[in-house]
Amino acid sequence: MARIAPLALVALALVLSSCASTVDRMVDAAGRAVDRQVDYRTDRAVRGVIDGMFDAGENAVRCVFTDDTCIERAQRNGDPVVLTDESGTPVDRSGTPVTTANAEDAVVRTTVAGADANYDFQPGERTLFAEDFSTDRVGDFPRSLYYLSGTGEVVEFQGRRLLRFTSGGAFQIQLGQTLPTTFTIEFLAQTGNAANINVYTAPPVRDDENRPFYGYEGDYLNLGSWRGSGLWSDGEPRSVVGTPDDELIQVEITVDDQYVKMYADGQRIANVPRADLGRHDAVTFGIGARDDRLVYIGDLRVAAGGNDLYGALQSEGRVVTEGILFDTGSATLKPESFSVVQEIAAMMEEHPELRVRIEGHTDAQGDAASNQSLSERRAAAVEAMLTGLGIAPSRLESAGMGQSQPVATNDTAEGRAQNRRVELVRL
Questions:
Q1: What are all long-range contacts of 225-233, with beta carbons under 8 Å and residues at least 24 apart?
Q2: For the domain 309-426, what is the CATH code?
Q3: Domain positions in the chain
Q4: 403-425: per-residue pLDDT in tens?
Q5: Which residue among 50, 114, 274, 419 is least enclosed by CB atoms within 10 Å?
């Protein structure tokens, strides 16, 4: 047998070592590729589970788990939050990646405990007026509002219909009855470049329709203006703070005798125990706008104060709680509903013998089967929150009625608002 020279042996050893190293690298690369595929499939599965937690129409916001500002803003808006790390991978509150088994740990839902401590707005339960301009033609002034002055027209803006003013003016919501002692006003609004909206609940002080409250000496509410939003008196700011500029926000006002509170996007901007707003059979909006400072306003609602829940249940056997509101097409409770649910829980704690059925009702827009399912999920959501507040499940039932039991016409925004409701029925 031929002998191999020592140098040849060294060369052969080096070749074999190189081949082994190459094979090792190939094996490592293949392993990493498999790991990446597993990670990809795992991440995709987790995202699929998380996406399945939300109803159609829910706007889940993704926030890095350390970004408290993002999380707080989403909760203030009533949006659920999906926590992620910097790369977008869903994680729990501590930053640990979640799996399909505990994907819910990456989701933060707005809860009573997470609500703004200063946000205690409770919508009035008896609708006096509601309008979303959905039946008005773009370019027209809304038929349901009483025009006084200015240049205003319905426009499509940010996916909804709003009334836009390009000059100063005024309009009224005519109610056909004097405002009660307790009432609420809600609307969407955007003011920019020092534009503003004044809200008056007292009768006008002069016949000039262009400026019906010019020289007014009473109290009124203002949104916008470089001097601040909140309660004004005799044309001067009395209790005001700054509000977002050039941003569509939800405005809510509650008046209980002389006590007035005002909120902008869930933040309280006025809290005045003694105010003199006055009462009239209309709510007047004064608009401060021009071409370079537009005003948008929409989704108007005026409602009377709530009923005595327990008294109504005892006398009538049922009571409407229109103050329980949900995101559009969703069973997610809006933050302003929490105080109403808390009131129900307090009533049930005070009367331990009471058992109730929670009934969900919808308007007639959309498919009847979808509305039935939606009403069931909404009633169940209220039941779940009451259970979370300590009410025994044995004292609660929930049922969905869909669109089958309207209390008003579905041909108007006001009627549809009345039909979208939650009722309590004594068992």
A1: 225/191, 225/194, 225/195, 225/196, 225/288, 226/194, 229/262, 229/264, 229/269, 229/270, 230/262, 230/269, 230/270, 231/260, 231/262, 231/270, 231/272, 231/275, 232/198, 233/275
A2: 3.30.1330.60
A3: 56-110, 126-304, 309-426
A4: 999 988 998 887 888 889 999 99
A5: 274
